[in-house]
Amino acid sequence: MPLTSQEIQKIASLAKLDLVHSQEEHMLQQINALFEIVEQIKSVDTLGVTPLSHPLETVQDVSLRLRQDLVSEPNQRELNQKSAPKVEKGLFLVPKVIES
Amino acid sequence: MSELHDLSLKALSLAIQNKVVSAREASEHFLTRAKAHATLKHALNPLQCEENQTSQSNSCGAFVSFNEEFTLHLANQSDQRIAKGQARPLEGVPIAHKDIFVTQNFPTTAGSKMLEAYCSPFDATVVTQLQQAGMVNLGKLNCDEFAMGSSNENSAWGPVKNPWDNTRVAGGSSGGSAAAVALRLCPAATGTDTGGSIRQPASFCGITGIKPSYGRASRYGMIAYASSLDQAGPMAQSAEDCALLLSAMCGPDLDRDSTSLDVPKEDFSRHLNESIEGLRIGIPKEFFSDGLHPDVRSCIDLALNEFKTLGVKLVPIELPKTELSIPVYYILAPAEASSNLSRFDGVKFGFRAKDYKDLDDLYRKTRTQGFGEEVKKRIMIGTYVLSHGYYDAYYLQAQKIRRMISNDFQEAFKTCDVIAGPVTPQVAWKIGEQINDPVANYLADIFTLPASLAGLPAMSMPCGFGASSMPVGLQMIGNYLQESKLLNVAHQFQLSTDWHTKTLRGAK
Lengths: 100, 508
Prior knowledge:
Order of helices and strands of chain A: HHHEE
Helix content of chain B: 25-40%
Oligomer: heterodimer
Strand order of the largest sheet of chain A: 1-2
Strand content of chain B: 5-15%
Strand order of the largest sheet of chain B: 6-8-7-12-13-11-9-10
Structural class of chain A: mainly alpha
Number of strands of chain B: 13
């Protein structure tokens, strides 16, 4: 079932993207064309099949590791904030979130 | 001695270690060549764009950044080590990195306006490992934005032109890497493969490239597209050169990459010279369907015949879910991308939109202006398939079919040792030809997606020339952790054929 204008606007909003009216038609057409191919997966019988998330799971145990909770890196705040758009006193600056 | 840039990586490495040429001379030589192929479009400064277009109209647009001082510093260090008899395995040999690997000494953009002026505080593990093997970092290479694409046309830096015909695409997403090696601008390059991004451009540009088993090379510092599929690999002139590079690149990185495999470092060159007589090569009938263009098919058939003369047995096999790999990939990869790319919000790094009224507006405007069209589309597809009420029908169902695809391969490997077939249904298309038909673009990934979804090692090597005399690649897929077998088979093929040594018409 093709996506509607309302649905695509909702998706854009969830993805924090603005989809202006002039681009909406083009995006709808492209995504709907892809979903014509995608829909075929619904008819595949996958009863009893376990989803595969790590590809090597089929041949070996790949349970996710946890490393020890130890400090392993020096403090590099300045270096890490070098490419940030707006920084002050070691903090990332964003527009005011809480109204005064 | 032939021209420096025509030497294989192995030969150049020997020439440097034996002091026939210094590491500095080699770096200067390749830098001069590479600089003539810097990107035409300057993503960050439109003024420079005009300047470049007039002065470098023959550029293929492969390189996006240089740091000459740093490159020559590394080269000098290599020469000092050689003088002291402390040479490391690939001492002084230049390599360039796909701009998806973060680097301390070069900007990293991932082909996106979103990361304009981004400088990483650390190096990707792969970059570090190659540097520790003695390699000299020559610069960064153009790629599709966040590695999303099969033509390198989705780059903020502009497309990479195919060195064999500059009206055609170089392939993608590692298009800059493939073109740079094909033009002998560097003896080796790194690439990354999510759905075919090493194999397809390697095939389109007539070079050799391999994607190892998922988890072999660390993903630390590789800007994430689809984490359960992304894998780094080398691109070079031959299987022999790729084996040297892969040995340096791979190895466990357990504390920094949660999906890194806990298997020891390996010498992937150790089986290169073994005979392949009696080897069984599986031929999946689904890879030879009607969609395969006849010019590509005849090259593949000739290559398979060549294998027969080497004593190889061709075995028909089936990979019945091949066609389903397209919908499965185009659900899973965008889903993971939508999650991975949520980090680009204009707060911690890179681009931020100019005018905004509140935090939400800052996010929206930054993402809308910072991402290119293809990236936005994939983020939206991913957001949709993961959204409430659709997760089971799309994402979970796709992961189940992914297991079935993987099981099909294990079934096939019961009767064969490696699998061979085409990399793509056709040779490189014209720049702009498929831009308005993205679905056609997606369908062209049909032969590379299955091995990516299964996480298997797979490679492309040149095996002839198809329509318009464009290169054709032969794909070979191995079972998990069988990279050295794959490279052995490819090396034996390259010992008895010379497709991989064919250099460009007029590329000197």
